[in-house]
Amino acid sequence: MKFDTTTLETLIDTTYDSVEGYRKAAEKADTPGLKEILLQRAARRQETLDRLNQELVRHGGSLVTEGTATGALHRMWLSITDMFESGDKAAINRVEEGEDYLAEKLEAALAMDNLDPQCRTVINAALAEVREGERLADALERQFG
């Protein structure tokens, strides 16, 4: 039975959108230190994206090099709302929303029983990295919120 790459493709699309979300949040932030933290998280999330993409290729899929249409629409909406909202608190709120959404997607994938052990390991590692992001967002909320 051939592995269905749809789950990985969806996770990759969402993770790509997350990388872009961190970059946008860094643009929104006022504090240089917060901008740097968010850009570092974007780099970490890019590493997670790369690992997921490698797993997709291992299963015969093609590299995903751009986000979803839904993500593009969401980013367009955020661009519109950017006119009304900026600063550290807005940046942190965006990060928190994105982390929660991505964690839900990863957890749903892990609940599936058709993942091979290596794929499950890659997705578990991605979830652990997202959980780090959630903890960071909580700490940033306490510090800047």
From TrEMBL:
Residues 6-110 form the DUF2383 domain. This is PA2169 family four-helix-bundle protein. It comes from Alteraurantiacibacter buctensis.
